[in-house]
Amino acid sequence: MGANTFGHNFTLTTFGESHGMAIGGVIDGCPSGLSLDFEAINEELRRRKTSSDAIMSQRKENDELIFMSGIFEGKTLGTPIAFMVVNEDHRSSDYDDIKNIFRPSHADFTYCNKYFVHDYRGGGRSSARTMLPFVVAGAIAKQIIKKYNIKIQSFITQVGEYKKNYFSLDEVNEILQKIKNDNDTVGAAIRVEINNVPIGLGEPHFRKFQAVLAHAIFSINAVKGFEYGEGFNAASMRGSQCNDLFINDDGKIRTKTNHSGGVLGGITNGEQIYFNVAFKPIPTLMQKQQTVDKDGNEIFLNPKGRHDVCVIPRVLPVVEAMTAMVLLDFLLEK
Amino acid sequence: MGANTFGHNFTLTTFGESHGMAIGGVIDGCPSGLSLDFEAINEELRRRKTSSDAIMSQRKENDELIFMSGIFEGKTLGTPIAFMVVNEDHRSSDYDDIKNIFRPSHADFTYCNKYFVHDYRGGGRSSARTMLPFVVAGAIAKQIIKKYNIKIQSFITQVGEYKKNYFSLDEVNEILQKIKNDNDTVGAAIRVEINNVPIGLGEPHFRKFQAVLAHAIFSINAVKGFEYGEGFNAASMRGSQCNDLFINDDGKIRTKTNHSGGVLGGITNGEQIYFNVAFKPIPTLMQKQQTVDKDGNEIFLNPKGRHDVCVIPRVLPVVEAMTAMVLLDFLLEK
Amino acid sequence: MGANTFGHNFTLTTFGESHGMAIGGVIDGCPSGLSLDFEAINEELRRRKTSSDAIMSQRKENDELIFMSGIFEGKTLGTPIAFMVVNEDHRSSDYDDIKNIFRPSHADFTYCNKYFVHDYRGGGRSSARTMLPFVVAGAIAKQIIKKYNIKIQSFITQVGEYKKNYFSLDEVNEILQKIKNDNDTVGAAIRVEINNVPIGLGEPHFRKFQAVLAHAIFSINAVKGFEYGEGFNAASMRGSQCNDLFINDDGKIRTKTNHSGGVLGGITNGEQIYFNVAFKPIPTLMQKQQTVDKDGNEIFLNPKGRHDVCVIPRVLPVVEAMTAMVLLDFLLEK
Amino acid sequence: MGANTFGHNFTLTTFGESHGMAIGGVIDGCPSGLSLDFEAINEELRRRKTSSDAIMSQRKENDELIFMSGIFEGKTLGTPIAFMVVNEDHRSSDYDDIKNIFRPSHADFTYCNKYFVHDYRGGGRSSARTMLPFVVAGAIAKQIIKKYNIKIQSFITQVGEYKKNYFSLDEVNEILQKIKNDNDTVGAAIRVEINNVPIGLGEPHFRKFQAVLAHAIFSINAVKGFEYGEGFNAASMRGSQCNDLFINDDGKIRTKTNHSGGVLGGITNGEQIYFNVAFKPIPTLMQKQQTVDKDGNEIFLNPKGRHDVCVIPRVLPVVEAMTAMVLLDFLLEK
After folding, report:
1. Which of B73-87, C36-50, D91-105 bottoms out in mean pLDDT, i.e. has the lowest?
2. Which of D49, D6, D48, D47 is nearest to D29 (CA)?
3. Which residue among B166, C260, D27, D199 is least enclosed by CB atoms within 10 Å?
4. ipTM of the predicted structure?
């Protein structure tokens, strides 16, 4: 299986560089006969690019989504669904000055060392924009898992030093504006909750639900940590605190508490799945930074253009998309 | 690919229930012509069962490792290496009283719901003992990556409320004894460091180094959290703090700091890889616990036998093993 | 892995219906830094559509190949190479009269039964046109295996009742014209020879060279038989005739004869690989045929339009393409 | 996926050398709750070793089958089913004289060139005996597909120069005795018929039923040709002869003829699947043969021991087993 394919039953193969001709993907294994809600897909794409002008990356992304195959008279055919968004804004000359520079904490260095050839424009293949196909495939997956009544919600819980049960977008923007005024960027964390997951998703040893989910989440740019249920907090707990006692809840076996986060032994137990994800700050800064060029000369990288201050809120639909794909992949196995 | 197979190039397929005839695995893709150090493999197995009598599970595990194929005159043939350990101690009657009971925070409930048939003896397929094959395959992987000078080390950093840069085994045992005296169990956390990793391991989008590693680590029982580099701490940081500036270190391009944890854009950058793993407390308690049986009757589970108090230190060689397999898998791709 | 993905190391994921928006594919695992010869790719596409006006399908296929990703400044990036050909000629109304009819020996019946929704226009996903991406990926694979000096050649050996060591295109056209005059179509067979294959490609048990090659060849429309080396003739032979004796050919160990067809025990032995492929006649006839519609009514299908008389010569570059992909896939493993 | 694993949903991973400790396999993805008929499995193993004393290989194979996991109280657990047969008869010294010799048309040469280390005893990994696990997994698959009423039958249709609709075992033995008297071996061909296959198995492009089946069949030692439906004969046919007209057979849509062999467009159409397989003669001869040793010295190989004269009838249960696995794999996908 190619490195750019994810999933066993509902698979997504992605393609595209930030400033190449197009970004897109091929979905294989989508059930046939499904009437796609295209507006819902576009709404997810809009969430990915939503920004207040003040704080977000300036690139105009019209992001008109084109489906090349797999859909006939509005319904899925059961054949591969190929789609793309054409990159409109790709003047290579804008990037001439970083052409030979390894930007700090960016992937230029590792791509150049691994592949020797590198499309440096806008980060090339390592650009956050290349996660757009995750959102499209996830939006389709969401429509299918909705039939099972499964619901995914994500909440911003941390922006730099600020922590809260969840932040409103207004609160987030206010914080990000401060960071922006400092010409800096910032990390963040989110919590995701999945309700109404059926019992039985996940297959030990190596397709445990949490392992496949972690794989999916760490495929997203900037992710540095993932924990589910009590997560790192579990390390501090006693068994007598952490165990979830089984009860008979009006004829249905459930657990009294849910420290486990909805998964036991790699298999969903029907309780809410919840997990946290931590993201590093965006590495592009509006500050002068020391670095080296391809020849190893130590130089200074000057700030240029306008860039996002934080991966949130744009990353939320990406995380939800990967989560939806994992859920659907297991549901199709069932 | 079956759910019990891990890896692309160096693959491990596991089999076995805790109290079935044997626990074992099949390694496929091991390079031929390798002179295996069997003593080193057994040493890793010993680490997995090391315990002070006082605090560890009482099961006598002789764990004599038998190789059924793939080795001829001490050298690997390049054909599948099958191995097993025969389970000596499997009196089914010992488990009659839990036969129909869902033990709290164990996998009995989910296995029964998923598979309908369940080998309840000692946890069956969900037993920690079923990770023994990880250790064998990892011990072989270690021998190969050693040729690349790669070194994996793991450190206990937390046992319940106690945190430290690293704990000695004596310190750990002292803490665990206290927990044991409370008839309780406890969570833990560890840090793993990998030195001398070559640049270029990992393949975006979906074979990013950290994603495959997270998949591997979450395949281990009791893992609740995984973070690499700054991990969850990165959510609190500013870009100006978190970025790793590139420097020319005597002709070699390196980074001044290593907040990234050795991976940029999903590809190793040659710096140390470090990550933390959190484990929940062992769910088997020496205390009476409320639960339900298969018919939904609420009952009490009485403590019986002797059991581990914490997954550490036994889990260390398991984590190292999965780490070694991930490294080797990527090295063979290179 | 999705059903529309082929290969382990050099993978092709295909998409597209005959009369949908586009036909294309995504290649993953192509080595980076390769200067592609686009003219050579187009030449293969031309071979796929070459026809004498008199005998071939009338569809105008401009087939302008568009690459959407994976190539920068003429060189492969090591990232996914997505490509497509836009379908220009897709008036759905042309197909209204076969919309509800199961054409004899076509895939309408099985697609409708499997997927319920079917793009009936021009055969939809089952059209020979959907093999265009095989040719593109194969043309790239050919450029890489050429560096190993490997050469693939295909020869037409049978057209209906006519058999020969190989037919020239003129001879073929002459025969096909006769068949066309009968308003009929015809089967064919070809021989493929691969020279300069290195020793050691193929991996027992289930990645034997011939097994993967057979899988590749039977993925091509209309293929009914595959044999390599002596093939079906081997069933008639004695061991004393069929065995290939080893000889020392000026310091190099070779075989005196090559009944084996270049593969021993699933691994290439350095001798020429040769195999035969048989194709059934094209099922679209310029004759009235009995059939049923979706409701089970027995009706007559009237001939319409102009269609190919035989899969040859167009199928030759398709067979070579799949062969090239198999060779490259194994070479990248080596 | 390792090279020794076959299947997507019902997977078999094989291990073992002819004269190593054991031959066996791991089945992953077998449905849980299945009461296995162990006698039926053993019956298939007996078919694999059935021979008249006069003509068959002398090795005593007790072949006691041991299951190590995946079965509890006679029922499948849904976890991996590991099994093996211990090799009883493995005196290495018997093979000292062929240790450094490349036997004609055997895999010694290619294994030595690929892996450098080779277990030469009895053919090592390339021995026909290593297909024993196919038979075990196939016997289990047969029990499951029987619930769908699917029936696989195989017929011997050719032994060397003799061809017939089918040969009885007595007829076969008589022919083989003649060949044996000539100190020679012989090729053969068989026909397989599968009845009651449901419509809809197979997934274009690359999981077409016939492609996966061909892959399975060419994984069997000595197979040189595979054709289904009209096969190579289709090359001689006209479309008007070869097309299968659809008819309404008492409310069920079927085809009037079945030249297609039960598959249209890569998907089963509900008609009988039939295919032919050709096998080369066994390369071990009771005659002196010229060959070379590992140093390239031209020498003569002297006959020794007693060996099979033909792969039939032993190969029949192997072919049926691979066929059953392919059918089950697709059924589990449905």
Report:
1. D91-105
2. D6
3. B166
4. 0.97
